[in-house]
Design goal:
Shape: elongated
CATH architecture of the largest domain: 3-Layer(aba) Sandwich
Structural class: alpha/beta
CATH class of the largest domain: Alpha Beta
Strand order of the largest sheet: 1-2-3-5-4
Radius of gyration: 60 Å
Distance between the termini: 184 Å
CATH superfamily of the largest domain: Succinyl-CoA synthetase domains
Helix content: 40-55%
Strand content: 15-25%
Length: 409
């Protein structure tokens, strides 16, 4: 019997509830599986299936995210996909919407290498102060690599082309596999202990991240850091890297580049010497020419001309100031002379001698004091009367005040 108390849902309602539950429960997941039925669309999106032995899961990688994938997805590849669960309501199916995807195992390897890198760096194995300079003209180069690999062939070719007289010592070792790291570390120690070369190149040709793992092994890194001769790490191609790059004194992008670094051609060195010699001569000639030009400035004629060039403005200024001072003094003397004349005339106008010249006299008593009051003298006092042309000596006979004789006299 049917339960009439349960309201039937539409397909859309049920799908929406499932969608809400799934997308809420799985906002971000990481799923490892095998790629199957990989089919790019004309719009750039990538549709595929992730599967294992017991189940399969639809997946989509949209165009913007697909560009960031560092490998070409193909059927059969084992990958780890990172994304969220979404429900496609039209088909009533769920899928993973992939945000990022990498080959299985790569993420774990990178995490392991990063942890190891941080730990060894904390010990100081990668410090810049430990790096040594390479010799300019090494006579012998030691190489730790596979004797049958492309890396050794590239090194031999470069050394032969650039500097045929250099010696090469090969320290053979496998460069991948379970035993490779221990053998590489051993050969590095032997090369350093016995100084098999002035420089040691450690490397191999390109490969996958897993192939290059021996050169990131802790034993190899420590052997490079402890090596008694300078070490160049030349692992893989330019985009490849290994922890040996950080421990070595120099990192070369390829084995060929390492050979180029250590084997500067004698022709290039001779050319550099010639260039430096020409540069030295040119600088000497230039300095000699400039020295002669400077000495020319100290000839008697040049010194005389330079003196007058320096002295002329000062002398001209001196003449100008002297003329200004002379003119100012003449003006001042003329002004003072005029003032003196005016003062002389004013003084003459009030001088008693001018009065005397008009017929008046100056009367002085016996002490030479001017007599201006009749009451200041007595009868029989001697007086001196100064006239315009002489002095009269006189004696007081009578004193009249106000036109009458002085009663008391």
């Amino acid at each position: 019997m049917s339960d009439t108390s349960v309201r039937p849902l539409t397909v859309a309602e049920l799908t929406r509830r499932i969608k809400d539950r799934l997308e809420t429960a799985f906002p971000m997941v990481a799923v490892e599986g095998e790629l199957s039925n990989v089919r790019p669309s004309s719009t750039g999106h990538l549709y595929f299936t992730l599967k294992d032995d017991d189940a399969s899961l639809s997946a989509v990688l949209f165009r913007g995210r697909a560009r960031a994938v560092e490998f070409t997805p193909e059927d059969g590849q084992q990958v780890v996909a990172y994304g969220s669960i979404g429900v496609y309501a039209k088909r009533g199916s769920y899928q993973i919407i992939v945000e990022r995807m990498e080959l299985a195992g790569v993420g774990r390897i990178l995490a392991m290498l990063e942890e190891r890198k941080q730990r060894l760096a904390a010990e100081g194995l990668f410090g810049a102060e430990r790096k040594r300079r390479l010799p300019l003209l090494p006579q012998r180069i030691a190489v730790v690599t596979s004797p049958t690999g492309a890396a050794l062939r590239d090194i031999v070719q470069v050394l032969g082309r650039r500097n045929a007289g250099i010696d090469l010592v090969v320290c053979p070792t496998p460069v991948q596999g379970d035993q490779a790291a221990a053998r590489i570390a051993k050969m590095i120690r032997i090369a350093g202990m016995h100084r098999l070369g002035d420089v040691l190149i450690v490397g191999r040709g390109g490969g996958s991240l897993e192939d290059l793992l021996p050169f990131s092994d802790e034993a190899v890194v420590r052997a490079i850091a402890a090596c008694e001769i300078p070490v160049i790490s030349a692992v893989g191609h330019e985009i490849d890297w290994a922890l040996s790059d950080y421990a070595a004194d120099l990192r070369a992008p390829t084995p060929s580049a390492a050979a180029e670094v250590v084997a500067a051609s004698r022709e290039e060195l001779v050319a550099r010497v010639h260039d430096l010699g020409r540069s030295i001569v040119n600088r000497f000639v230039d300095r000699h020419r400039r020295g002669r030009m400077l000495l020319r400035q100290f000839s008697p004629e040049e010194l005389h001309r330079s003196y007058w060039m320096l002295a002329q403005p000062t002398l001209q200024e001196f003449d100008r100031v002297r003329e200004e001072m002379t003119d100012a003094m003449d003006d001042r003397i003329a002004q003072e002379r005029h003032r003196l004349e005016i003062a002389t005339r004013e003084l003459s106008s009030v001088s008693p001698f001018q009065v005397v010249r008009r017929g008046y006299a100056i009367v002085r008593d016996e002490n030479g004091r001017i007599v201006s009051d009749a009451t200041s003298v007595e009868p029989n006092d001697s007086l001196a009367v100064e006239l315009r042309t002489g002095v009269l000596d006189a004696t007081v006979d009578k004193i009249r005040i106000g036109g009458t004789d002085h009663e008391e006299l």
